[in-house]
Write a structure and sequence with these properties.
heterodimer; A: mainly alpha; 4 strands; B: 67 residues; 0% strand; rod-shaped
Chain lengths: 348, 67
């Protein structure tokens, strides 16, 4: 009897637990599945509710509410974001890649068809003239060093995951990208300092003058067969200079905005900064490739100007005859205040 | 060649100085944007660092007023 009394609650509990099983087993066989969205009168209460697409068209963006201080997290979608994604993921890689590849191809074709620009009709004299002083050369190489690092690490943003990632794998790519990002952020500062020095030092020598028209008309002498006169910088160098100033300042401004995200701009402003930064960088990288080519492989004697600071008198006569005349006239003046900076320093 | 090495040295020095300055002035997001609605009794080193006073100060008021 005692045993029956003990078993009774267990039997009741088991019955209660197992009783829903038959109903659950029939759930999948219901001829009409339960319709949570259907009201008792048969109407769909969400049928007339506004769709996500219509909201996006009407409001321009989809926005919610958040309880965290970062209010930007409340913005779910906006058309500008999609445009930016298209730019970043397809337009930019193609545009940037094409610019760089086309420039390299053009330089290669030029080199193999025209060869190096030599001083054929005026051999080197062995007499040197100072073209760039030490401050100018240090500024050039400081800016050049930082630009090369910035270009390589910047291109990693665009091409890294497409070209480098498959080659070196996720771990190495993650480490490289982490350090590349840090290097990009800090090397931006020497670049900006160097750029400011360049603007101040060389702006007066890069103002267009009457020689530039002829230089451009003769394509630097390639069409006429003789070197057109030029002052300290010819029209080609001036184009490089103003490109560096224009795109360098654009890169600096947009870069500072991105170094301090959302400090002065909202999400659309940040995306515009990225458009400007990436576009300017792509153009400037292509232009600097041409500058590096002509300053090293492309022209005899050009590299000396930025390494030792001195060029041969014959080179100066061929490429910058107006500048050489000015320097020699200045050296002959009795009140010359800086005899070491002008051809009085000329030595054999 | 010396002037090229000099340029490299200057750029690296300026970059290191910029990096050090950034490191000195940057604050982690959990300090610059503390959540006013969350109070962790003993947050531990992994959340706010060993020097965390427990008082978010003006930043918490500012964040609260932004909301």
């Amino acid at each position: 009897m005692a045993l029956r009394l003990l078993l009774l609650p267990i039997a009741l509990a088991t019955t209660l637990m197992l009783s829903p099983l038959p109903a659950a087993g029939q759930h999948g066989q219901d001829p009409l599945p339960p319709q949570a969205s259907t009201s008792p009168n048969g109407a769909n209460p969400t049928e007339q509710s506004v769709t996500e697409q219509r909201l996006l068209q009407q409001l321009g963006k989809l926005e919610g509410r958040v309880s965290i201080p970062d209010y930007k997290a409340s913005l779910l979608q906006q058309p500008q974001g999609r445009s930016y994604q298209t730019f970043h993921e397809s337009v930019l890689p193609w545009l940037s890649g094409l610019l760089i590849v086309l420039m390299l191809a053009a330089l290669g074709i030029f080199y193999f068809t025209h060869g190096r620009v030599m001083l054929e009709d005026s051999p080197m004299t062995g007499t040197k003239i100072l073209r760039f002083n030490v401050i100018e050369r240090l500024t050039h190489w400081t800016t050049a060093t930082s630009f090369i690092v910035l270009a390589i690490t910047g291109l990693n943003y665009v091409f890294g995951k497409r070209l480098l990632f498959p080659l070196i794998g996720p771990e190495a790519f993650a480490s490289w990208t982490h350090w590349a990002k840090l290097a990009h952020n800090v090397m931006a500062w020497p670049f900006m300092v160097g750029l400011l020095f360049m603007v101040v030092m060389w702006i007066k020598d890069n103002i267009p003058d009457r020689h530039d028209v002829r230089w451009l008309r003769e394509a630097g002498g390639f069409l006429s067969g003789s070197h057109p006169p030029a002052r300290r910088f010819n029209a080609g160098q001036k184009l490089i200079y103003w490109s560096v100033v224009l795109f360098g300042l654009t890169l600096s401004g947009s870069g500072i905005v991105m170094l301090f995200p959302f400090w002065s701009l909202d999400i659309n402003g940040m995306q515009w900064a990225q458009y400007l930064h990436a576009g300017s960088a792509s153009l400037l990288i292509a232009i600097i490739l041409a500058h590096i080519y002509i300053g090293t492989l492309g022209m005899e004697g050009a590299y000396d100007a930025m390494s030792t600071g001195e060029v041969d008198l014959a080179w100066a006569r061929a490429h910058h005859s107006a500048w050489l005349d000015e320097q020699q006239a200045a050296a002959r003046r009795p009140d010359n205040p800086r005899p070491r900076a002008v051809p009085s320093e000329v030595r054999s | 060649m010396r002037v090229i090495l000099g340029g490299i040295a200057i750029s690296v020095t300026l970059a290191l100085a910029a990096g050090a300055a950034f490191y000195a002035v940057q604050t982690p997001v959990y300090e610059s944007q503390p959540l006013p609605s969350v109070r962790v009794g003993d947050p531990g080193d992994n959340l706010v660092g060993s020097d965390w006073s427990g008082n978010p100060g003006n930043r918490a008021d500012q964040a609260r007023s932004n909301n």
